[in-house]
Design goal:
alpha/beta, 15 helices
Amino acid sequence: MKAARRTRSLPVLLLAVLALLALTAGAPQATAATGVSAIADALRRSPVYVDPAAAAQLSTAEADTLAHQIKDADEPLFIAVLPAGYPTRNLFTDLRTATGITGLYAVRLGDRFDARADASVLPRTAVRNLVTSVQGETANTQLTDFTGRALTSMGGKAPASWGGRATTGSGVSDTALIALGAVVVAGGAGAYALVRRSRRRHEQEQRAALDRLRVVVDEDITAFGEELDRLDFHPAESGADGAMRADYERALNAYDQAKSAMADARRPEDVRAVTEALEDGRFSLAQLAARRTGTPLPERRPPCFFDPRHGPSVTDATWTPPGGAPREVPVCAADATRLADGRDPVVREVDTDLGRRPYWDAGPAYGPWAGGYFGGGILPGLLLGTALGGWMSAPAYAADYGTGYGDFGGFDTGGHQGGDVSGANFDPGDFGDFGGGGDFGGGGGGDSGDFGGGF
């Protein structure tokens, strides 16, 4: 009887062994299909990757639509849609290393979402604001909104491995060459006259923009001069030391530099040098004030977002523009108190054809003006969703004012622009924790490069 029972149990045991072997054989394939290397390989060929285990989140048609949108924009945005249980440790850093391409990387992980970027493509503040603005949305809505907003803010070019517009060996597009040939054939005196008229019209528009901007810049210079006049400090006074005198001298030099740069300005973009000098001068005055009172020296921060004449900011506060998404902006102490009390900040308004408006709704000429104050790569996140932010992201803005978001200083490119193949040569700090903002699980507690400590 015992032998019979053992004989009847053999088929059952054999089936169990075969089932176990089948599962074991299939496991390496699943791991390989969703490994970081496999995802990176897919992203080098297309901007959107949807893991087979996450296919229910984003359909093939929706993924194709996003991929076409990103390719058409010619920007280095990479999107990965992964299952909820995908390992998160060092995911962004490992994915960026495996892909080897400078860009903005966004990951939808189950119902969670986060992103990281090389500083040459999009600064950390802008990434954080973009991520915050799309939290809680369904997968397709979230990724569509994020893509649309990111493409207006980021810098760089799509990687060549995606394929792109046809070009000749010189890098000039065939379309451009055909257009140029058509102009030559149809040119002559008529084309030359047309170009001259267009150039004169453009110069007139530039002068008109500068004239309107000059009023605001002159107000800034005057306000700083009045601060210097009110300053009760004399280099030879009792208690004055070399550091104080150096601060005071830098402030005076900044005032002179601002006046000289404005006198030499011929185009709207020339005023950036003016506001850069004023920002530096106000920080020197803040340092001088701290030394005289014996308080700690101030941290080098951008000016108050609502009005740079308020001086250096002291903290960041959440602000939502009409019709826009919340974002963190640098504010002075007075505006921080107003916002905390539920009141409106004191906003810098300027004259427009529609009356007095905040400077971020006043026209593209204010881009260089704001860029001089808010260098260091924070401007894209601050202006996201405003009229000025939209103007500055358009190709026409770069043509007219000589720069876009990417030219506002402080971007640590490491020699690589967006879309470049840099391999492992990138700053892992750009892909690590944001110190509480933008991480899955609220940040904190995760190792550098992790999604965060919230799982």
